[in-house]
Amino acid sequence: MANDERGNGIFYFLTGAAVGAALGVLLAPRSGRETREELGDWLKERREKGTEFLHKVKDESLAKKEAFVAAAKAAKSTYAEVNAKHHDNIAA
Questions:
Q1: DSSP labels, the chain
Q2: Backbone angles phi, psi at 28, to 5 degrees
Q3: CA-to-CA distance for 38 and 62, rounded, in angstroms?
Q4: Of 26, 33, 71, 73, whose CB is crowded by the most CB atoms within 10 A?
Q5: Can you tell me the distance from the alpha carbon of 48 to that of 32, in angstroms, rounded to the nearest whole number?
């Protein structure tokens, strides 16, 4: 539950930062054309960073999934070995 709250907090913080930055650009004493260009550049940069972040999360998630699967297979194998030894000792 703590992770959900932290995730929500990060989302709200980033949303607030984006809205604040956009308002700052819009309310700056510049011409409309300059403001639109700057806002367009800012949005393009955010989009690129967001794409990079999503790729990073995807790659990390895949790596963690592979590590988890490997650990589960190792645990299953170890359990089978221990269980087989236990049954061999009982039979002897």
A1: -HHHHHHHHHHHHHHHHHHHHHHHHHHSSS-HHHHHHHHHHHHHHHHHHHHHHHHHHHHHHHHHHHHHHHHHHHHHHHHHHHHHHHHHHHH-
A2: -70, 150
A3: 36
A4: 26
A5: 24
pTM above 0.85, yes or no: no
Quote the distance between the C-alpha of residue 63 and its chain's center: 12
What span, in angstroms and rounded, lies between the C-alpha atoms of 30 and 37?
Answer: 11
Q: Where are the domains positioned within the chain? A: 2-91
